[in-house]
Design a protein that fits this description.
This protein is α+β, with helices and mostly antiparallel strands and 318 residues long. The protein has helices spanning 7-32, 49-65, 79-82, 95-98, 124-128, 202-210, 222-230, 246-257, 293-299, 302-307; strands at 38-39, 46-47, 70-73, 114-122, 136-143, 146-154, 168-173, 177-179, 192-195, 215-218, 236-239, 262-264, 285-288. The protein folds into two domains: 2-176, Fructose-1,6-Bisphosphatase, subunit A, domain 1 (Fructose-1,6-Bisphosphatase, Chain A, domain 1); 192-307, D-Maltodextrin-Binding Protein, domain 2, CATH 3.40.190.80. It is built from ten helices and 13 strands. Helix 1 packs antiparallel against helix 2 and helix 7 (222-230) runs parallel beside helix 8 (246-257). The longest helix is centred in the N-terminal third of the chain and has 26 residues, at 7-32. The structure holds adenosine-2'-5'-diphosphate and magnesium ion (3 copies). Residues 51, 74, 119, 121-122, 124 line the site of one magnesium ion. GO terms for molecular function: 3'(2'),5'-bisphosphate nucleotidase activity; inositol-1,4-bisphosphate 1-phosphatase activity; metal ion binding.
Length: 318
């Protein structure tokens, strides 16, 4: 099989398997009733036992199978202990990924050149408030500074539909496509914009308003908002704030771009994912699937652009 010699596809197959395992961990912790909530930088920046346990699971599992990867996870101080964490070791590879052929441009990508951006639980604020379908697990793979593959796992997809299967896995690779989706056609009428519900500020409000929405959908999570685009429920995701980090955007960006969409900062620049890049997406986030991305870019006010400088890369050669 062509895929067996493709390291990027193998890492993606491991990421899909460990994302699925993460769902079991998150659901078990929520049903235990003890979320172990900790405030990080401020009251809008929370961490739960699910964030910690899933990061340990993902980092220990990927490190065990691919020791030369660079893995950058949201939750600090967990990576070192994760290598010794046997409880959470997931060593399977997702067959549905392995059966695909590696796009020619990635056959040369070496394990030591891949950077994996991990958000163990995106939408933590909403998770603590019981808005469970806002939660996703995000694992994105970057090579030569570009997002090339990723998985978005939604552990509580369908949780309000009795009898339906709980959770879904979406994964993709640039050049291969996005898998696990249904309808992706956007609404035929209006200009529906999704944005933050828990991290708003004046530049967020100004950028949404400037894009002339007919409706604003305020929900949690970067992964969740990109899923709204991929499910054909909104036309654009507009986040005029530096709050999102590389682990919030890497995997969702792949799923969008592999379907022909775009995810940029507010200046229209592509985001960079080198291992030594600034973690914050300081230029904000603008994402579209079928809508005219440049139309939205042209409407972002100069005052917002000035408040959101482009992200700096220490060395763009790695
Ligand atoms: N000001 C912020 N402080 C901390 N995290 C933020 C901030 N803004 C955005 N994020 C992260 O980006 C995600 C998307 O933002 P929002 O839901 O506000 O649109 C959030 O779920 C959160 O990720 P996480 O939940 O993984 O900490
Ligand atoms: Mg967080
Ligand atoms: Mg996040
Ligand atoms: Mg998170």
């Amino acid at each position: 099989m062509a895929s067996t010699s493709c390291t990027a596809l193998k890492v993606l197959a491991a990421s899909v398997a460990v994302a699925n395992r993460s769902g079991t961990i998150i659901r078990k912790i929520l049903s235990s009733g003890n979320l172990g909530i900790v405030e990080k930088e401020n009251k809008n920046d929370l961490q739960t036992e699910a964030d910690r346990a899933v990061q340990r699971c993902i980092v220990s599992s990927l490190t065990h199978q691919f020791p030369q990867l660079t893995i950058i996870g949201e939750e600090d101080n967990l990576n070192e202990m994760a290598t010794a964490d046997k409880e959470y070791l997931e060593t399977s590879l997702a067959e549905e990924v392995l059966k695909e052929s590696c796009p020619a441009e990635y056959t040369e990508a070496k394990e030591s050149e891949l950077v994996v951006w991990v958000d163990p639980l995106d939408g933590t604020a909403e998770f603590t408030q019981g808005l469970l379908d806002h939660v996703t697990v995000l694992i994105g793979l970057a090579w030569q500074g570009k997002a090339i593959a990723g998985v978005v796992y939604q552990p509580y997809f369908n949780y309000q539909t009795p009898g339906a299967e709980l959770g879904r896995t979406l994964w993709g690779m640039i050049g291969l496509g996005t898998f696990g989706l249904g309808n992706t056609e956007p609404p035929t009428e209006g200009n529906i914009i999704t944005t933050t519900r828990s991290h708003s500020n004046p530049t967020v409000v100004d950028s949404v308003k400037a894009c002339e929405p007919t409706e604003v959908v305020r929900v949690g999570g970067a992964g969740h908002k990109v899923l709204l685009l991929l499910d054909g429920l909104v036309h654009a995701y507009v986040f005029g704030s530096p709050g999102c980090k590389k682990w919030d955007t890497c995997a969702p960006e792949v799923l969008l771009r592999a379907k022909g969409g775009r995810l940029t900062d507010m200046h229209g620049n592509d985001l960079k994912y080198h291992k030594d890049v600034q973690h914050k997406n300081t230029g904000g986030v603008l994402a579209t699937l079928k809508a005219d991305h440049d139309w939205y870019l042209a409407r972002i006010p100069e005052s917002v652009k000035q408040a959101l400088p482009e992200t700096q890369v220490k060395s763009a050669t790695k």
